[in-house]
Amino acid sequence: MPRWTRTSRRRSAEVGWGRLGSVGSGRPVVHSIELLLDPAAETAVRAEWTVLSDAGLPSQAGHRHRSNRPHLTLAIAEDIDDAALASVVAAAAAVLPLPVRLGALTCFGHDPYVLVRMVVASVPLLVLQERVQAAVPASAWLLRRMAPGRWTPHVTLGHRLTADQVGRGLQVLDGVGAGDSAEGAASAVGMRHWNGDARVERLLAGEGGPSDRDGRGGRVST
Fold first, then answer.
1. How far, in Å, CA of 61 to CA of 121, rounded?
2. Residues near 204 by Cβ (< 8 Å), separated by ≥ 6?
3. 172-184 tens-digit pLDDT
4. Higher pLDDT, 149 or 165
């Protein structure tokens, strides 16, 4: 049987995983700070995206834009100014590269579901997330989802799955050989800022490829 966990309906609804909705002001949440994985871990996650896609299941592989890549969201906000970004860069510089561990499969939400691979909540990772979210101005609506004790680190594999599709997804991913699974030790080697207003991603610290890339075409995963 595949090794996976499931969050409770109440917890999933409260946290609102898998999408960024509208905040109290009515403005979409379009900014995020994200960790980027080392090349081997990124390749392994992309391979799991492909397994889902090849099985005819919703998958992040379906989002073709170059800014769509495996990542771990640390903070979300309506806007992030240069002063906040400077604080974020300082927090990243102190810890990157950061050892992380990709854990079991789970799903968030309820019909539709989001299929994710958990990231083990180590103390250094939790401290970094707290520092980054504290540096980023956000509404109370958002802080209910990202405040310390409420944040659940994960890497998204697919959005908007039915219950049956979640079961099929777990089955096909369980068929991936242990050496090819994304589960296991990895490193967070870079940090980026996604600016949904301008549709641009910027590498803030560490490694991650070209910075300030044009995101026209849409960044959809969170």
1. 26
2. 33, 85, 88, 89, 92, 190, 191, 192, 193
3. 998 775 556 789 9
4. 165
Q: Of 151, 81, 94, 145, which is closest to residue 122 (Cα–Cα)?
A: 151
Looking at residue 177, what is its pLDDT? 59
Query: What b/e readout covers 31-50, taking b as 16+ CB neighbours within 10 angstroms?
Result: bbbbbbbbeebbebbbebbe
Helices (H), 30-157: 39-54, 82-93, 123-135, 140-146
Q: Provide the pLDDT for residue 98.
A: 97
**How does pLDDT run across 100-139, given as a tens digit for each residue?**
999 999 999 888 999 999 999 999 999 999 999 999 988 8
Structure tokens at 142: 């958002």
The bridge status of strand 98-109 relative to strand 4-6 is parallel
* Domains, the chain: 4-214 (3.90.1140.10)
Q: 63: which 2 tokens?
A: 């989002």
Task: Quickly count: other Cβ atoms within 10 Å of residue 201's Cβ.
Answer: 27
What does each C-alpha distance from 168 to 52, 86, 162, 164 come to in angstroms? Answer: 9, 43, 10, 6
Q: pTM of the full predicted structure? A: 0.81
At CA 98, angle to CA 33 and CA 79, rounded to 5?
A: 10
Query: What value does the mean pLDDT take over residues 65-81?
Result: 89
